[in-house]
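Aim 2 progress update. The chain analyzed this quarter is reproduced below.
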Amino acid sequence: MHITEFTRALANRLPGRQPDLATVPIATDPASDLIWDSGPLPYAAFETDNIQRSVLTHHWGLQLYVMPRPHRPGEYLALPMLPANTSHQHVTGLKAPRGIAVPADPVPAAALLHRRLLTDYRLSAPTPIRRSNPGHLQVHVTLDERRRPRIPLNVADMFAMTPALLRRSTRSGVLVGASCDQQTPER
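Predicted structure tokens:
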């Protein structure tokens, strides 16, 4: 199964994740520098030109770097990337979620990702996001053409605010991930 087919099928089984439709050769990929902690598994792959990757992106700004596992044609590697708006300096001293090998079948691969990686990744991500934003959250409110308030947010702010928005979703509005706006409900 080609990497794009695999990541599309995997994204269908992992709620909130969208695959990157462009595949990029790993040897020339700047996104490989954003892998949080890959462990010893993929280093052999970074030396070759013919292996390609894809990225699964969650609307909270969490991404998985997906690539074929070197020397194992029936497996892929799923490697957690740094949360949006962070760098390696923000994760210094933190226990990183480790990348895992998954079978080329998307159904058991999604089950393994849920069981062995995604929970650790979600629990590890807020600390570097907080470290990358040393000040208070600055909010700019604008009005749209119908005089409804709009609050533009970047991905890291969305991730930090999502729990509060979910707790108060009936009072404060609904977060729309595609536009990165918080919209108040029609009254």
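The helical segments are 3-13, 106-124, 126-132, 155-167, 169-172. The longest strand covers residues 52-58. These observations will guide the mutagenesis experiments scheduled for the next reporting period.
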